[in-house]
Specification:
By secondary structure, this protein is of the alpha+beta class. The protein has three helices and seven strands. The strands form two sheets. Strands 4-5-6-7 form a four-stranded mixed β-sheet, with helices on one face. A hairpin with a 3-residue loop joins strand 1 and strand 2. Helix 1 crosses helix 2. The two termini are 34 Å apart.
């Protein structure tokens, strides 16, 4: 796996590209001189955990012949200052699905993704407590805590 990053304009506006030629825009926050022309790197981590888990979940539901009409994930993370950097300490994903989808199957797929298959969540687990909620056809189950990170609380 290889990513190339090049500065595009301004102080921090950059473009990342992968080996397939796909690109995304990154920028610093406005308070440090960024121009708001792309996602900030920490936002990309939240997008990555949501995207990684979404692929897992959608693949599992497809195999179970569930008919997903719409699928959204809201990812919210909170950081803590540690020395000179920040670490995510809590991340919550809220999966919202509609269609001919059984709640039990959606919940199981999400649980498997978050606790077993999602490489991004597994990467973040040592420092962040990751939780998730599931809404299927406007019915929400309570927040679920995936396996705790390896850090001591």
């Amino acid at each position: 796996m290889k990513i190339n990053i090049k500065k595009v304009s301004g102080e921090f506006h950059m473009e990342a590209s992968n080996e397939d030629g796909n690109t995304l825009q990154m920028d610093g926050s406005k308070d440090i001189g960024g121009e708001g022309k792309g996602m900030r790197p920490m936002q990309l981590l939240l997008a990555a955990v949501g995207g990684c888990s979404s692929i897992d979940v959608l693949m599992m539901l497809k195999k179970q012949k569930q008919e997903v009409e719409s699928f959204d994930v809201e990812v919210e993370g909170h950081t803590e200052q540690v020395d000179e950097h920040r670490l995510f300490r809590t991340i919550c994903l809220h999966f919202t699905l509609t269609g001919k989808v059984e709640m039990e199957k959606a919940e199981r797929a999400i649980k498997l993704s978050m606790e077993k298959y999602c490489s991004v969540s597994k990467t973040l687990e040592p420092t962040a407590k990751i939780t998730y909620k599931v809404t299927v056809n406007h019915f929400t189950i309570k927040e679920i805590h995936s396996e705790e990170g390896k850090k001591d609380e």
